[in-house]
């Protein structure tokens, strides 16, 4: 296992991601982590980049024990500067910020120790990605130069006796040619980590971990939505503890056409999961009556969800078969993924921006449940691989995300049964056409939204005054930025004509051509 100490760079999690691709297991912790408090011994340490200047008073520094720990170290960008700072304060502000591609020139040195050329072994000069303001103004003592760029005379350095390396460029971004090979050289050849992190191994270990954690009698409850993460987490729990896992689907009345029923069938008949479906439609719609302000709608939906889930959890707990004790359920399943874990553990200094989280906690506080998070080590694409391994269908594993507030934030303005009918039918047609055209997997998320306005149209021989549907389809990798999907005209024509003809109450269809930013993916 490798340890990544994070100084808060926007690229830090990519280091972990790239190492995973090499089947190398690693953990990322904040740069302030004290090594003496670690319960395990890393085989190598990577110091990440970060937005600070090492010479500033408020700059973060690692536990000095890092340099005495006896394992190889790789400093990247700020990590290089941190190393140079430790070995002689050899860092200054550069005259100009360097951002983008640079030509890396390799220097071969006659090694005093066998490790010195190992990081960039077998490489030619190459293009690398730089993003830094500070640079080294001299070599720290006992170090030699292994690479230069026109603007950074010490773009790569190595300690002459110890396996300590520093590089100014970012090997973790795809813009750096051979970047992955740099990490591979460090992990496999220098740290001698065995590349044995595979999904099969993950499943075996996770099932053992869940069984040990929950014990022979423990019971677990968890909300499911029919989405990838909650379904994969639920299936893993089912494999580990069978019917001692209780899944709950809260039907908030804001789901898509036939969605509650199809989730029920998939989870119970398809995956054998012990599922309770609660139809809370009335309750949600009553609470939402007359409300059109987006934030109020979200708050009401989130609040109702917690209440309904909590009541259901208490009921299931009281009725559950098990040893006689007050609450029979001890654990709450959460489908947390690694990016959220990284977000909560990564080092945040004064200037760091914090991502807003959409997901509602939903913890039944008075039940004293302990949290179990079987997906907390996985990235989204790994969850999909895991889902397939657990026998979940391709179509579910690749399902587009659907927000917790559901159609509630896709019907702009007040939510009524009539508006729900229109939104459901229009969305169903749009998604059906996307599937028929074989485009579903090319698009990251698509839906029909219902606008709170009426427009004039001519239908048959009459003038009508009816509602407007806005179609939205985006391509994205991280949902933080997104581009609208370039459908061809014939496709849009087909969808528009079907919606206007088949959905009563709609006389116009628009296609949203706003990217994110400045737009968001959802419309409310
Ligand atoms: P935005 O609209 O912020 O959406 O660009 C980014 C992603 O998050 C989803 N989203 C939500 N998911 N509860 C959720 O569970 C919410 O309140 C929520 N709002 C947005 C959205 O569908 C997209 O995938």
From TrEMBL:
Compartments, as annotated in UniProt: Cytoplasm, Cytosol
Keyword set includes Transmembrane: no
Domain of life where this protein originates: Eukaryota
Q: Which reaction does it catalyse?
A: XMP + L-glutamine + ATP + H2O = GMP + L-glutamate + AMP + diphosphate + 2 H(+)
Keywords from the UniProt entry = ATP-binding, Glutamine amidotransferase, GMP biosynthesis, Ligase, Nucleotide-binding, Purine biosynthesis
Would you name any one GO CC term?
cytosol
Q: What is its EC number?
A: 6.3.5.2
Q: Which Pfam families match?
A: GATase, GMP_synt_C, NAD_synthase
| Annotated CDD domains | GATase1_GMP_Synthase (cd01742), GMP_synthase_C (cd01997)
Binding-site positions, ATP: 225-231
Record-linked InterPro entries: Class_I_gatase-like, GATASE, GMP_synth_C, GMP_synth_GATase, GMP_synthase, GMPS_ATP_PPase_dom, NAD/GMP_synthase, Rossmann-like_a/b/a_fold
Q: How does it assemble?
A: Homodimer.
What this protein is called in its record is GMP synthase [glutamine-hydrolyzing]
Q: Which gene encodes it?
A: GUA1
